[in-house]
């Protein structure tokens, strides 16, 4: 009898965990943490790149809501001014400074930007460096990427971000601490068919920042690597017919700030089935990579045509056309 009760309890717990996982929109460690900690943010300076729209704009707003002073960067000055006006409209006492920046520019320009960022708010210095700005063009099959495509992506997503880090970290060390929040992607952890160079740029950030933390954490530098799946912010949407809703931008940002203020080192922010694929590739790579190899060509084909990236289409390809021929898999 006792054995039956124990087995029953174990089964109920397992069932509960499975349901929780099926409904999850982030990894289990992050979901176990609470809300963002205001005490970790209030009064500190957060510099957000790519803040003219999308995730970056919402990051700036939520940091301001939590009492941080924010520096907002991107290339488009007019959009940054709108973001500043919107934030001040909501939080009139917030501190907001605009710092136009092209991540793909040379080292001297980046050095100047860092100097300026350190001078804002009476020289308070940047505590949270939020590397969010990035180039994410529409998908293209791997062999159709031109040299120019590769260069633009790597310059913006990797070189700009790494150089900014090299230039600002010494100021943080001098003050005894700082925190890099790095918006990578699920494409920085698992293959992303149709986004080969974007994926490699996001993998590069994961490697660089985990290494940087291992060298500098004992000197007060924290790193939180954030890997979001599809987020509603994306201006050029693909996978639009998948039936899988992208996560609202404010939820992604809420979880990002929660992760950073709870000092998590890496978090995955996505609903299913992407989250399951992340777990498979991390903990059962043979199965995870087999799955990605099975769906890769179908995903490229679908994103190139009707954007139908539903799991069934990914697994089994597009239905036969009325002619009886299969739809072409690649353009
Ligand atoms: N949305 C998603 O589904 C998703 C998923 C995973 C990861 N992410 C990552 O999250 C970040 C933000 O994504 P998002 O959806 O908010 O993208 P978005 O709406 O396209 O915004 C991108 C931001 O980056 C800025 N930017 C682009 N090129 C730049 C450059 N050379 N120098 C400086 N700033 C530049 C843009 O401003 P300007 O054009 O004015 O410069 C804009 O503010 C990106 O790193 C993206 O890879 C997004």
Automatic annotation (TrEMBL):
One cellular component (GO) term of this entry: membrane
Pfam families assigned: adh_short
PROSITE patterns reported for this sequence: ADH_SHORT
InterPro entries: KR_dom (IPR057326), NAD(P)-bd_dom_sf (IPR036291), Sc_DH/Rdtase_CS (IPR020904), SDR_fam (IPR002347)
Domain of life: Eukaryota
Residue span, Ketoreductase domain: 44-234
Protein's name in the database: Ketoreductase domain-containing protein
Provenance organism: Dioscorea zingiberensis
């Amino acid at each position: 009898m006792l054995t039956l009760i124990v087995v029953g309890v174990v089964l109920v717990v397992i069932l509960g965990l499975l349901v929780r996982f099926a409904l999850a929109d982030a990894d289990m460690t992050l979901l176990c943490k609470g809300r963002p900690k205001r005490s970790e943010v209030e009064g500190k300076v957060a510099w957000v790149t790519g803040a003219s729209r999308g995730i970056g704009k919402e990051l700036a707003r939520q940091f301001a809501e939590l009492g941080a002073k924010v520096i907002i960067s991107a290339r488009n000055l007019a959009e940054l001014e709108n973001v500043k006006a919107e934030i001040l409209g909501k939080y009139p006492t917030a501190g907001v400074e605009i710092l136009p920046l092209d991540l793909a520019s040379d080292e001297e320009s980046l050095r100047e930007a860092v100097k300026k960022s350190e001078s804002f708010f009476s020289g308070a210095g940047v505590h949270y460096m939020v590397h969010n700005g990035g180039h994410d063009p529409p998908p293209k099959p791997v062999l159709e990427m031109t040299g120019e495509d590769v260069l633009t992506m790597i310059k913006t997503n990797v070189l700009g971000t790494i150089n900014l880090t090299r230039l600002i970290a010494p100021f943080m060390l001098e003050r005894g601490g700082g925190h890099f929040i790095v918006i990578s992607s699920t494409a920085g952890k698992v293959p992303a068919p149709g986004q080969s160079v974007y994926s490699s740029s996001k993998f590069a950030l994961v490697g660089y920042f985990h290494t940087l933390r291992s060298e500098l954490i004992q000197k007060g530098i924290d790193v939180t690597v954030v890997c979001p799946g599809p987020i509603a912010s994306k201006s050029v949407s693909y996978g639009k017919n998948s039936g899988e809703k992208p996560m609202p931008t404010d939820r992604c940002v809420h979880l990002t700030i929660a992760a950073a203020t709870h000092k998590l080192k890496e978090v995955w922010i996505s609903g299913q089935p992407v989250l399951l694929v992340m777990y498979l590739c991390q903990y059962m790579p043979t199965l995870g990579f087999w799955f990605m190899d099975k769906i890769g060509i179908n995903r490229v084909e679908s994103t190139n045509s009707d954007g139908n990236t539903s799991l069934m289409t990914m697994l089994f390809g597009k239905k036969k056309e009325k002619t009886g021929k299969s739809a072409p898999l690649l353009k």
